[in-house]
Amino acid sequence: METELEEQEFIRANNEVPSSFDQIRIQIKYEFLNYLRSKRFYILLGIVAAIGLLIMAAIASIRPTDYLSSNSAFYHVWWGNIVGLVVILGGIFFGGDAISGEFQNKTGYYLLPNPLRRSAIYFGKLVAAYLACIIMIGVFAVITVADGALYFGSSIPYQFAESFLFVLIYIAPILGVTFLFSSVFKNNSYSILVSTILLIFGFGTIATELASLAQIEPWFSLNYGGSIAGNVLNPGGYPARNIVVAGVKTFAATIPEGLAIMLTYFAVTTVLGLVLFEGKDFN
What is the SS3 string spanning the chain? Predict the structure, then answer.
């Protein structure tokens, strides 16, 4: 409703329909404020903080120095193995019902009668969700660096900055997938459930097992592309593209391949999600 009121004020003041840029800007502003005021934001913030603090407590009590003997190993184990889950949770929390909620909660009836493009609604919500995810990733990064400082002082591996950049890129296709299924369904529960199953089990466990059994590179998995964020922190250097251990071949996407997979997923899912949203009726 706040978006609608500001849009009406803009029209009265300028006697014209807001440009696409202005519509997206207004949508981003109020969607982001809605996220900051929502319970889900603080629930996810608490989950992220709890994950970080629990792992910190576990490491402090167990002190497994055999594989945490260097700061690069620490960041590889802590950040590289956990941050992907944080990104997926952020995508599900902020994107799982971003579009379907407009249908289920009937809020679309208040937006669409105004001269507001559906593409502006879609991209405004997408950018707002992306900003909310960045906050979560930032909180997890702060906890990671704080815990690393307890063991290795202020020394931070230079690869951490590169990994952080790849994580920021990884957020985009994750949200693209959740927004796609949020556009497919008009029910929040369905869109969230399907997104969760696909991102956690489909791209994760099932894709990994299929690749292992069939001995084929899982280039079709979004998680495989996002794994470059953890691979750059590997203490022994970036892993080889494929390695055979005990007769089983394992794969690691190169950085160009990982980026190509993530950007392709983002482009395809975003376009499909927008097309579906443009074609749906509020009836």
Answer: CHHHHHHHHHHHHHCCCCCHHHHHHHHHHHHHHHHHHCHHHHHHHHHHHHHHHHHHHHHHHHCCCCCCCCHHHHHHHHHHHHHHHHHHHHHHHHHCCCCHHHHHCCCHHHHCCCCCCHHHHHHHHHHHHHHHHHHHHHHHHHHHHHHHHHHHCCCCCCHHHHHHHHHHHHHHHHHHHHHHHHHHCCCHHHHHHHHHHHHHHHHHHHHHHHHHHHCCCCCCCHHHHHCHHHHCCCCCCCCCCEEEECCEEEECCCHHHHHHHHHHHHHHHHHHHHHHHHHCCCC
Q: How many domains does the chain have?
A: 1
pTM: 0.85
Find the domain containing 9 and state its range.
2-279
CB contact at 8 A, 45 and 39: no
Model pLDDT for residues 228-244, shown as the tens digit of each residue: 998 898 877 777 766 65
